[in-house]
Amino acid sequence: MSDSSRTNDSASSSNASDTTAYLRNASFSRNEGPSSVDAAVTASDLLNTTAFDPSRLHPMAAIGDKLDYLLLEDDKTSTLPGAGTPLPSRGWSDDLCYGTGTTYLAGLGVGGLWGFREGAFRPLAVSNSRLRINSILNSVTRRGTFIGNSAGVLALIYNGINSSIDAWRGKHDQWGSMAAGGITGALFKSTAGVRPMFAAATLMTGLAGGWSWLKTVLL
């Protein structure tokens, strides 16, 4: 064994001997005094202390009254003359979104009923329940999507034009709605020819006038 290995072994032995001797000669004392439970710190003491400084928790806590709050006026309805509806509306955005959505869903329902009746009473070459169910599903899918999409597009165009006319005139009345309905019908059938365009404009004008009258009755 080399001299360096002997030196390391002797150093380790002396360190172990010193540690053992220290532990043998050390004395430990224990405080036998009674401990008071009332002196323990509770959560209430931490929360009710007057030395609590919230500005130390976050830098934004020290801004005081310099914070500007964002006030949202969600309950503010439209103040346009004659724009009252059975349901509260905040303006053209509500009419555009809710009007288009409800019309689209109503069109899906009407088209689905139409397709169900068509598929249920359609004559089949072979009387079979599976073929009947398949016929009903095909009819519901075809009629429901067609009526729903057409009604949604019409409602989208109508609400957009009606809101533009109201903003230009500064009021909402039956004549503006009828004009919006006529323009909507004409645009919807503008690619089908003059006669279908005129028929659609007449139909939409009547529907818009009837809806305006119904709103006055419900209000």
List the helices and strands and how they pair.
Elements: H1 3-25, H2 43-48, H3 92-121, H4 129-169, H5 174-188, H6 194-218
Folded structure, characterized:
This protein is mostly helical. The chain is 64% helix and 0% strand. It has 6 helices and no strands. It has helices spanning 3-25, 43-48, 92-121, 129-169, 174-188, 194-218. The N and C termini lie far apart (110 Å). The mean pLDDT is 75.
Shape: elongated
Number of strands: 0
- Calculate Rg over CA atoms: 41 Å
Give the strand content.
under 5%
Tell me, rounded to a whole number, the average pLDDT.
75
For the largest beta-sheet, the strand count, sense and barrel status come to: none
The helix/strand series, from N terminus to C terminus, equals HHHHHH
Structural class from helices and strands? mainly alpha
Percentage of residues in helical conformation = 55-70%
Count up the helices. Answer: 6
Low-confidence stretches: none
Give the termini distance in whole angstroms.
Answer: 110 Å
